């Protein structure tokens, strides 16, 4: 698959449909379809796409919020050896805790 981004690869592998809400995407709307890493490790990009799912921006945001909440409650199990170093929403859990006071 060469120098293609994982998004470009995923768009070739999967139908342009959100894996959660089922919304179809085409044309200009395609930019709203994102690639979600199932294991939350952005470095885990197998060429068969087995760690990816296409989600619309709304469902993708919801998935990451659910993950953060599970992580805050200690419900997330981590593989320390292969864990992600990506911190796209770093600090958000702490801000949410402050808001809840």
UniProtKB/TrEMBL annotation:
Report if keyword Hydrolase is assigned: yes
Q: Which GO terms describe its molecular function?
A: endonuclease activity; hydrolase activity; nucleic acid binding; zinc ion binding
InterPro entries according to UniProt: HNH, HNH_nuc
| Any one annotated GO CC term | cytosol
Pfam families, per database record: HNH
Residue span, HNH nuclease domain: 6-61
In terms of CDD domains, this protein maps to: HNHc
**Where on the tree of life does the source sit, at the highest rank?**
Bacteria
Q: What UniProt keywords are attached to this protein's entry?
A: Endonuclease, Hydrolase, Nuclease
Family note: Belongs to the HNH nuclease family.
Query: Could you tell me what this protein is called?
Result: Putative HNH nuclease YajD
State the organism of origin.
Mariprofundus ferrinatatus
Q: What is this organism's lineage?
A: Bacteria, Pseudomonadati, Pseudomonadota, Candidatius Mariprofundia, Mariprofundales
């Amino acid at each position: 698959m060469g120098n293609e981004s994982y998004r470009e690869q995923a768009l070739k592998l999967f139908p342009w449909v959100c894996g959660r809400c089922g919304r179809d995407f085409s044309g200009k709307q395609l930019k709203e379809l994102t690639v979600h890493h199932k294991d939350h490790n952005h470095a885990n990009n197998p060429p068969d796409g087995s760690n990816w799912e296409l989600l619309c921006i709304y469902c993708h945001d919801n998935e990451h919020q659910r993950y953060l909440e599970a992580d805050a409650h200690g419900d997330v199990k981590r593989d320390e050896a292969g864990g992600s170093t990506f911190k796209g929403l770093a600090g958000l859990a702490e801000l949410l805790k402050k808001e809840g006071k």
